[in-house]
Amino acid sequence: MVEDDAARLREAGLRVTPQRLAVLDALSRHSHPTADDIYREVAPGHPGLGLATVYNTLSVLADRGQVLVVDDRSGRRYDLRVEPHQHIRCRSCGTLADLPHWDDRQWIDGAMPDGWAVDRWNLMAEGVCPDCRSKTPALVEERT
After folding, report:
1. What are the average pLDDT values for consecutive 10-residue runs of the chain, which has 144 residues?
2. What's the half-sphere exposure (Cβ side, CA atoms, 13 Å) at 1?
3. Are 54 and 114 in a shared domain?
4. What is the DSSP string of 29-43?
5. Under a CB-based contact definition with an 8 Å cutoff, are residues 89 and 95 in contact?
6. Which of 63, 79, 95 is a domain's end point?
7. CA 93 to CA 90: how far, in whole Å?
């Protein structure tokens, strides 16, 4: 919603502009897009928008806790869901999705060597998404 996006921008200390609202709108409609994905979608409707504006907007939002950065082998991806959560990536098409909530804090605490104090972690599971499985069942057989 535009009101939520405007509040997110204000909370990050950014002016509310049509270009920044369009960046957030595109981010809300796609699962973990890259800045380039967002730019390709938003630029046709905003002729003066540059790729740098998209990157800068996402960077400031991430620095101020309004957007989560997910480092992926294809580059940085962005997520409006900022509470701690983990992800799964399709090894065939690259789709990235959120994993359901689970008690990862208990798991990480139990797995750490003595003396470590862990405050952040990132788990990236890999598999084959339902679309790719239906198109190429052999993809699943390759790894099992």
Report:
1. 86 92 94 95 93 94 93 88 88 89 76 82 86 79 52
2. 3
3. no
4. HSSS-BHHHHHHHHG
5. yes
6. 79
7. 6
